[in-house]
């Protein structure tokens, strides 16, 4: 039996959308959307595991003769052989030294590294310039916590048996209650259940392989 085609955008599609509550508009340099750095760290931890275990980064600092600091950041994920390298640069300040310049340069480099994996791609693709898009994702990120929790479990599940047991034993009842308490949650619940069913179907080739 032919093996399933690898989805090269699987990670990208999981992390490409950004919760607007973790962004802010910056009026400098013509205006741009800044992303909360700790929100990015949280998302990376959700995808890869604790920092230092499932992912992490190293950096080197350079101080060119123009009163700036450059941080060369190397991010690894999964294992230390899978790396991405990018640079962040910040001004040290004129007159009064910016004591946080180094931290800002490292954060800038880390954000760029994560962007190459698809993290917050909607911001970097300019979608946050569209107010309708921002409102759309704002609504999406306002989904009930039980739905978000269940989707995280589905996305990180490694086998169908545990996933089915978790759904039937705990989340099925909670999701029904969530929809009954507020019918407007019906769309969120439906999407979560569809995600669950798709995940189960993705496990089927593995089941067939084990049975062969």
Structure description:
This protein is α+β, with helices and mostly antiparallel strands and 212 residues long. It folds into 2 domains: 10-130, 2-Layer Sandwich (Enolase-like, domain 1), CATH 3.30.390; 145-211, no CATH class. Helices cover 50% and strands 18% of the residues. It has 8 helices and 5 strands. It has helices spanning 10-15, 37-48, 101-115, 121-124, 131-140, 145-156, 160-181, 186-211, and strands at residues 23-26, 32-35, 55-62, 68-77, 79-91. The strands form 2 sheets. The protein has a 3-stranded antiparallel beta sheet with strand order 3-4-5. It has a two-stranded antiparallel ribbon with strand order 1-2. A hairpin with a 5-residue loop joins strand 1 (23-26) and strand 2. The termini are close together. The model is unreliable at 207-212 (pLDDT under 50).
């Amino acid at each position: 039996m032919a093996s399933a085609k690898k989805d090269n955008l699987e990670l990208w599609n999981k992390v490409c959308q950004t919760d607007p509550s973790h962004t802010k508009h910056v009026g400098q340099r013509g205006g741009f959307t800044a992303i909360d750095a700790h929100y990015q760290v949280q998302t990376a931890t959700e995808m890869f595991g604790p920092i230092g275990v499932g992912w992490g980064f190293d950096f080197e600092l350079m101080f060119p003769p123009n009163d700036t600091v450059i941080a060369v950041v190397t991010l690894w994920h999964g294992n230390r052989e899978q790396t991405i390298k990018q640079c962040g640069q910040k001004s040290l300040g004129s007159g009064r030294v910016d004591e946080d310049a180094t931290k800002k340069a490292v954060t800038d480099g880390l954000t760029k590294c994560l962007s190459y994996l698809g993290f917050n791609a909607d911001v970097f693709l300019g979608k946050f310039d569209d107010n309708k898009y921002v409102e759309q994702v704002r609504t999406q990120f306002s989904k009930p916590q039980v739905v978000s929790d269940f989707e995280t479990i589905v996305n990180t599940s490694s086998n169908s048996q545990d996933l089915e047991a978790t759904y039937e034993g705990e989340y099925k009842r909670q999701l029904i209650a969530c929809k009954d308490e507020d019918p407007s949650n019906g769309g969120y619940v439906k999407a979560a259940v569809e995600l669950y069913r798709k995940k189960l179907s993705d496990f089927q080739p593995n089941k067939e392989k084990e049975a062969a």
